[in-house]
Design brief:
This protein is α/β, with parallel strands linked by helices. The protein has six helices and 17 strands. It starts with a helix and ends with a strand.
Length: 299
């Protein structure tokens, strides 16, 4: 019943949100433990950007994205002249200027993005893993809860006990299809070498969330797992390959998606009672897609 209720609430919200300017009912599937249903208008929702952008040579990326900016006066004009067979002076409205275009050479895991189950392995739960263009849209929009794990130090594991403790602290029970956001504080170090220092989930804590019916887990850090340095150190110390990429590889057992490189989680005014939209770009057959993650918070 809880799953059906959550999906019905989500559909109701989407139908109402489509009716721009009309009164809409925001019914949170968390019921009494979050915001009670009420009549709201779209202008009563605060939109909070939870994303970092694509940036040329971004210091927060291990593999630097490349962006070629084609300007109005140079390449853009030349392209328009070639396309339309016209001279510069023929573009009357623009006073002889062309269009602006950006050409990108970036990975699909650059900036804020969603990892599809295919990123973790070819199979998930014994079936072909979904690519990013196959991820259900229902997984990418829904009620959310943010868990403050900023006390966890870089390299440490965010355990099941940590998650349970924070849920008790904010008096929230996870419902199926909730979006769970992990707040590590790493996003405040974006653009510095310290950004890559972070805690993260392990196999047990990831599967625990998935077992609650969660399909989308987000984190304000470079990866959902612990920093690579900690994984490598434990692997070299023990020779045990289970220390390597355990949160990601958990998606081969049970499918889920993750949002990496979130930002501004500290701007959320409350830990739950809001929605998150994180619709990914459809890259055919891709393992990930960029997204503009946004929180919709009733004022």
């Amino acid at each position: 019943m809880s799953t059906l209720r959550a999906r019905a609430d989500r559909r109701a919200f989407l139908r109402a949100a489509a009716a721009t300017g009309a009164g809409l009912a925001l019914a949170s599937p968390a019921g009494a433990q979050t915001v009670p249903p009420g009549e709201l208008r779209l202008n009563q929702l605060q939109l909070i950007d939870l994303s970092v952008g694509l940036e040329h040579d971004a210091p927060g990326e291990r593999t630097k994205p490349k962006i070629e900016y084609v300007t109005h006066a140079a390449g853009g004009l030349a392209s328009m002249m070639d396309t339309f067979g016209a001279k510069a002076e023929d573009f009357v409205y623009s006073n002889g200027h062309g269009w602006a275009v950006e050409n990108l050479a970036v990975g699909s895991h650059t900036a804020t993005h969603i990892d599809a189950p295919y990123h973790y392995g070819a199979l998930s739960g014994g079936k072909p893993a979904r690519r990013i263009d196959e991820v259900p849209l229902e997984w990418c929009f829904g009620p959310a809860v943010v868990l403050d794990l900023r006390h966890r130090m870089p390299g440490e594991v965010i355990t099941v006990a940590d998650l349970e403790r924070q849920l008790r602290a904010v008096e929230y029970t996870i419902r199926p299809d909730d979006i769970v956001l992990i707040h590590t504080g790493a996003a405040t170090r974006w653009g510095t070498p310290e950004y890559f220092r972070q805690p993260g989930l392990d196999r047990d804590s990831t599967l625990w969330l998935v077992d609650q019916g969660v399909h989308m887990i987000g984190i304000d850090a470079w990866t959902l797992d612990r920093e690579f340095a900690a994984q490598i150190a434990d692997y070299r110390r023990t020779g045990d390959g289970r220390y390597l990429w355990p949160a990601h590889f958990a998606g081969m057992t049970k499918e889920y998606c993750q949002i990496e490189k979130l930002a501004n989680l500290e701007r959320l005014p409350r830990p739950h009672g809001f929605y998150v939209s994180c619709l990914p770009i459809k890259i055919k057959g891709g393992s990930a897609g960029w997204c503009r993650a946004v929180a919709l918070v009733p004022r």
